[in-house]
């Protein structure tokens, strides 16, 4: 039987996501990002195509590395303006029954106590279809907007993330016991205070003493995504993530990252086969190969390569305007998205180099990921080839033109994969985690670090994880 492929749609609550300039295409609807109609239409297309989830990117801050300021980003709408991604999820959940939602929320600038409530609320409103993409941020402009001079160092941000997760795990898993909610109208008892606990945390970055404000949601802890492919990011993903979003321009690069993450997960005591790994890819398809290539040629008339370099400069922390456009880009110390620079310098095929001009052309459609062009059969062949050669589980599919790219996948490519037994014909019942892992798996497994914070579960030293009943 063919290996099942998982598909997420990759979007962002802004005008330009991964294909700068293509918002000017006459069929593109990205400039309607600030309307509910856009998101309702998109959700309907994705559920029709049986996509596993809509993966919503986000960034706090402005891309102001290129040319030393924000002018190009502002003029070309390079991920600015950008609205809050959480706000659009409830309406999409209301018009769908199965589509999951993976939402990016940076933990660097919000205390975990209110954030835990926000995610529990979304888990309730979606019926357990919410996932959290854990990121630490990468723009100094975000840090400055929050009153800091400069963002924390790259690896320090992951130390902060470790401490942050301990707080939210305690709130989601340890504050309310199973059975704490009674809903007893006759006795006028909604909950049993003896089964609700104040959790305490004294860490290097966060302190908290609180009762979680929400009753247990269908998943308690949302499905945990992670999108950092640096060495430190991979270790963090191996220990905490259920779904990992990686990026690379070739199968060799992606396959090496996948193998390393699975090895690290096994060393951390987790089942490496249950770490679902997605790579970013853009697929341009049509009823025939010629139609698909004609679309690509049409799309290329609207690309903005300078805006693509603005994105790359923000991702890498390197001002590409200062580099010779025809000389290879070399590795450099960076405090931004380390993996973004590694993908074009140290983590490449032997003998391969990338110049800024080549990177700009590559990133102008689909960002840092590869672009597949062809008929539905050819695209399906390519997706299966990527899975076979890299051991990924699926794809975060970026768009060239929205929602056209997603509709083409849903209506043309998905039926081919279904006929081959490589894609589901219908959704499994239950929460997002159950759709990914099977019935009865609504909550994180016992091998996950969050499990040790459930009420009554002993810590490694035999003590309870800072929980006590409400006085």
Architecture overview:
The chain is an alpha/beta fold. The protein has one domain: Luciferase-like domain (TIM Barrel, Alpha-Beta Barrel), CATH 3.20.20. Helix content is 35%, strand content 16%. It has helices at 36-48, 71-76, 89-94, 112-125, 140-145, 154-174, 231-240, 251-267, 289-300, 305-316, 338-342, 356-363, 376-390, 404-419, 432-437; strands at residues 6-12, 53-57, 100-106, 130-135, 181-184, 189-191, 197-202, 207-210, 223-226, 243-246, 276-286, 371-375, 394-398, 467-469. The strands form three sheets. An eight-stranded parallel beta barrel has the order 1-2-3-4-9-10-11-13, surrounded by six helices. Helix 7 (231-240) packs across helix 8. The longest helix is centred in the middle third of the chain and has 21 residues, at 154-174. The protein is globular, with a radius of gyration of 22 Å. The model is unreliable at 460-471 (pLDDT under 50).
Q: What is the topological layout?
A:
Blueprint (H helix, E strand, L loop, with lengths): L5 E7 L23 H13 L4 E5 L13 H6 L12 H6 L5 E7 L5 H14 L4 E6 L4 H6 L8 H21 L6 E4 L4 E3 L5 E6 L4 E4 L12 E4 L4 H10 L2 E4 L4 H17 L8 E11 L2 H12 L4 H12 L21 H5 L13 H8 L7 E5 H15 L3 E5 L5 H16 L12 H6 L29 E3 L2
Parallel strand pairs: 1-2, 1-13, 2-3, 3-4, 4-9, 9-10, 10-11, 11-12, 11-13
Antiparallel strand pairs: 5-6, 7-8, 7-14
Concise description?
The chain has helices at residues 36-48, 71-76, 89-94, 112-125, 140-145, 154-174, 231-240, 251-267, 289-300, 305-316, 338-342, 356-363, 376-390, 404-419, 432-437; strands at residues 6-12, 53-57, 100-106, 130-135, 181-184, 189-191, 197-202, 207-210, 223-226, 243-246, 276-286, 371-375, 394-398, 467-469.
């Amino acid at each position: 039987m063919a290996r099942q492929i998982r598909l997420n749609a990759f979007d962002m609550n802004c005008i330009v996501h991964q294909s700068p300039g293509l918002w000017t295409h006459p069929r593109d609807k990205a400039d309607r990002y600030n309307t509910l109609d856009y998101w309702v239409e998109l959700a309907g297309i994705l559920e029709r195509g049986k996509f596993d989830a809509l993966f919503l990117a986000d960034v706090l801050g402005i891309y102001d590395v290129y040319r030393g300021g924000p002018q190009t980003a502002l003029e070309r709408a390079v991920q600015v303006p950008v609205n809050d991604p959480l706000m659009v999820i409830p309406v999409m959940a209301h018009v769908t029954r199965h589509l999951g939602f993976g939402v990016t929320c940076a933990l660097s600038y919000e205390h975990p106590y209110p954030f835990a409530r926000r995610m529990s609320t979304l888990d309730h409103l979606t019926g357990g279809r919410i996932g959290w993409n854990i990121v630490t941020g990468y723009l100094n402009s975000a840090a400055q907007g929050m009153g800091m001079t400069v963002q924390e160092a790259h690896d320090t941000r992951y130390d902060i993330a470790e401490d942050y997760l301990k707080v939210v795990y305690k709130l989601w898993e340890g504050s309310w016991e199973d059975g704490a909610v009674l809903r007893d109208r006759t006795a006028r008892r909604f909950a049993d205070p003896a089964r609700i606990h104040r959790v305490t945390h004294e860490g290097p970055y966060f302190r908290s003493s609180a009762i979680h404000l929400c009753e247990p949601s269908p998943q308690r802890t949302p499905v945990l995504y992670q999108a950092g492919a640096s060495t430190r990011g991979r270790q963090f993903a191996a220990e905490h993530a259920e779904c990992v979003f990686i990026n690379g321009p070739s199968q060799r690069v992606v396959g090496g990252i996948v193998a390393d993450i699975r090895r690290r997960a096994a060393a951390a005591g987790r089942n490496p086969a249950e770490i679902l790994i997605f790579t970013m890819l853009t697929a341009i398809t049509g009823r025939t190969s010629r139609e698909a290539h004609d679309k690509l040629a049409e799309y290329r008339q609207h690309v903005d390569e300078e805006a693509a370099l603005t994105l790359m400069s923000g991702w890498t922390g390197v001002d590409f305007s200062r580099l010779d456009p025809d000389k290879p880009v070399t590795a450099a110390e960076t405090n931004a998205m380390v993996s973004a620079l590694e993908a074009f310098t140290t983590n490449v095929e032997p003998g391969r180099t990338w110049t800024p001009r080549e990177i700009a052309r590559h990133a102008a459609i689909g960002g840092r990921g590869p672009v597949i062009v062809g008929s539905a059969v050819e695209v399906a062949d390519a997706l299966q080839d990527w899975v076979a050669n890299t051991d990924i589980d699926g794809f975060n599919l970026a768009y060239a033109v929205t929602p056209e790219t997603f509709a083409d996948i849903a209506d043309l490519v998905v039926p081919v994969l279904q006929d081959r037994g490589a894609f589901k014909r219908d959704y499994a019942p239950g929460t997002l985690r159950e759709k990914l892992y099977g019935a009865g798996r609504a909550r994180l497994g016992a091998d996950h670090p969050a499990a040790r914070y459930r009420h009554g579960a002993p810590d490694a030293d035999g003590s309870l994880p800072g929980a006590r009943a409400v006085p």
